[in-house]
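## Example record

The block below lists the input lines for one assembly entry, exactly as stored, with component labels intact.
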Amino acid sequence: MKIATFNINGIKARAEALVDWLREAEPDVVCLQEIKSTDDTFPHEIFDGLGYTIATHGQKSFNGVAILSRLGLEDVVCGLPGEDEQARWIEATVVGRRAVRICGLYLPNGNPAPGPKYDYKLAWMERMRTRVQELLHAEEPVVFAGDYNIIPQDVDAAKPEQWREDALALPESRAAFRRIVNLGLTDALRARTTAPGQYTFWDYQAGAWPRNNGIRIDHLLLSPQAADLLRDLGVDKEIRGRDKPSDHVPVWIDLDA
DNA sequence: ATGCCTTGCGGAGCAAGA
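Predicted structure tokens for the full assembly:
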């Protein structure tokens, strides 16, 4: 079961590029972030003939998450428990040979820090931690896939000094991320390699892509039962060099499920 | 240097991203 996460940065602006990538990569499940679309205006028609079932949790202009699946989607839940005006979380169960709970998330950016946006980020992460804890009680395969807006360690940035005061890398942000991971999750990429340079985002500005000034902020965290099924992982980096790309690239895992 | 791009909204220039 190939499961990908991709911050698409506007589904309407990226429809053609997304379909091209789907045809090439053939993922079974895709968690999309920043669809920047309501459920009503989500362009379902661009996926016609590709065989995906789609669940969306959108809002006007900003944020918005969705899950695409070639294996169907069951028990869809939108949003973390508690009130939230921002569409950042969606869950569904996908059944292959094994049933896998998929959580697609778009964690708040949090800049500028300190400030109300940073407070919202940390509070959101605490709400996520509670939900992760609940889901882990089932002792089943669960995948938490998305744009975490967290640079876990200095090795995950080309120029870590540029991010010292940033909400993506502040010690309190990293500690909140570790509190989630330490519930028993595996960072799928770090289970495969300790190598530096595994970036998933390059800013549009200041020639970040040609200079390879990237950061790793898109992650797939696995429950113990999902980690036991991990067969392969990849970052589809070449997508970033195409015309009109998202500033993020897809990250995927293959589970023996 | 809160800009350097890019998208959405709406029909000009902001807000937001990271």
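The first strand of chain A starts at residue 2 and ends at 7. Chain A has a mean pLDDT of 97.
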